[in-house]
Amino acid sequence: MSFSSLQRNQIKEQLIQEHFDLIVIGGGITGAGIALDASSRGMKVALVEMQDFAAGTSSRSTKLVHGGLRYLKQYEVRMVAEVGKEREIVYENGPHVTTPEWMLLPIHKGGSFGMFSTSVGLRVYDYLAGVKKNERRKMLSASKTLEKEPLIKKKGLKGGGYYVEYRTDDARLTIEVMKKAVEHGAAALNYVKAEHFLYKGKKVKGIQARDVLTGETFEVNSQKVVNASGPWVDQVRKRDYSVNNKKLRHTKGVHIVIDQAKFPLKQAVYFDTPDGRMVFAIPREGKAYVGTTDTFFEGDTSSPQMTEDDREYLLKAILYMFPNVKVEKEDVESSWAGVRPLIFEEGKDPSEISRKDEVWEGESGLVTIAGGKLTGYRKMAEHVVDLIARRMKQETQKNYPASKTKHMPISGGDVGGSAGFQSFLEKKTIEAEQFGVSTESGRELVQQYGSNVDELFKVAHAYKKTTTASEKELPAEIYAILLYSINEEMAVTPIDFFMRRTGKLFFDIEWVKQWKKSVVNVMAILLDWNSDLKKKYMIELDNAIRDAQVPVNKRI
Prior knowledge:
The protein has about 550 residues and is an alpha+beta fold. The chain is built from 17 helices and 18 strands. The chain has 3 domains: about 5-55 and about 170-245 and about 355-405, FAD/NAD(P)-binding domain (3-Layer(bba) Sandwich), CATH 3.50.50.60; about 100-165 and about 250-345, D-Amino Acid Oxidase, Chain A, domain 2 (2-Layer Sandwich), CATH 3.30.9.10; about 415-555, Alpha-glycerophosphate oxidase, cap domain (Helicase, Ruva Protein, domain 3), CATH 1.10.8. The chain has helices at about 10-15, 30-40, 75-95, 115-130, 140-150, 170-185, 235, 310-320, 375-395, 415-430, 440-450, 455-465, 475-490, 495-500, 505, 510-525, 530-550; strands at about 20-25, 45-50, 65, 100-110, 140, 155-170, 185-190, 190-200, 205-210, 215-225, 250-260, 270, 280-285, 285-290, 295, 330-345, 355-360, 365-370. Strands 3, 4, 5, 6, 11, 12, 13, 14, 15 and 16 form a 10-stranded mixed β-sheet that branches. A hairpin with a 5-residue loop joins strand 17 and strand 18.
């Protein structure tokens, strides 16, 4: 199967011509996980996403595969146990996009956490999550806590908890899971919106879809349909006649990015704020990012943005925990905002609403997955496909095996698991020079693409050999990433590339500004854009840069 933007018409034709076992609506991490689980069991799967893959919540999280320590305070023991165990599975299956990150939890007099309660809580967390011995929690004295992060507020400091979470690139994790589903035969297409359901009798048997890029409408037929559309779950369900009384409650989370020259954070910190919320401050690629806020959200779920209040809240949180760090609003280089699709609970504040997932099955046969966390995507997918498999057996007498994804590397993950990744990284970093790629660039490419890196090395090598200096709009390494994004990861627009295939729009916005014109020029040639389309995409990219930097209520 192809996962190339250059093959969109062929994939669309396949969606029209074939009869599928399962259609998945939604191309975030949940939909990608369902597509992989189902296709690896032998189901014929189609997936449609109305934006780009991971364009919603799945590229706008705190970028942590974490077990939800704070949910122990809400006595959600079962969720912490299940999701905590999933952290290591996600890591083992994709160590190139997931990295262990020691987290410091400072404990101050009068704060939300005490030394004893934190010690007990972290011990229970380790037990529930099945944390391996070398990653189990440690309790630190005040002086040891300051050794880990000297910028922490010294007044009232009693000590700290020290425990492991996992940092990830959420969008790349989603893309790699989707690519693995395509390897197993799934047909996936972005920028295709499911507009109506098709019925046979009173049972859902497919969708009427619209290609957002061309306006073309077409039908896709299947035995079963799953609604995994995240924040859009309720909108999709309303097109079916059999809606239950459950509904979502959207909350918005905002993160800001600051250069480490201004905020020289060396250690990931999880800290409480004066209003009792918990906030992360995490170093990454020469930057420090801080979040998240947690407020009810009623706006456009496709384009949530930072407000002045959001920025002010996070700047005050930094000042509260790191009083000697003088960060001003002008120091915020970029930001992102995401919408959490939580299941409505009457009378609860945003931070109190459960992050648990639920599966709803309508009279029409439409299956909906709602709520949940990035970390638990694989287990959520397993639950959904188990239900689909049971229904398929009842309706067609066809048997499907149990889930196979627990020990299945995602695309790029064939590196020998976490134990083998470091030696794989060193080996491939040395090999990079054979392709004319510098050691530094080679290492970065291996860390981002894992076992797929040879494809990028080959492209970079061919580009250097066959392209004259005057023809080169981009350095070979950037060209290789761009070509791979189009040919192997279905990048369609410049924003797809800068935001979700590379993450540069969030973590290196100056790099985006430097290369945006050249990237648009090269994409225009590769994807055969006319001048109007090229201009349109450049305007969209400029708007995305503005959205990342300027609060929505400060725009002219």
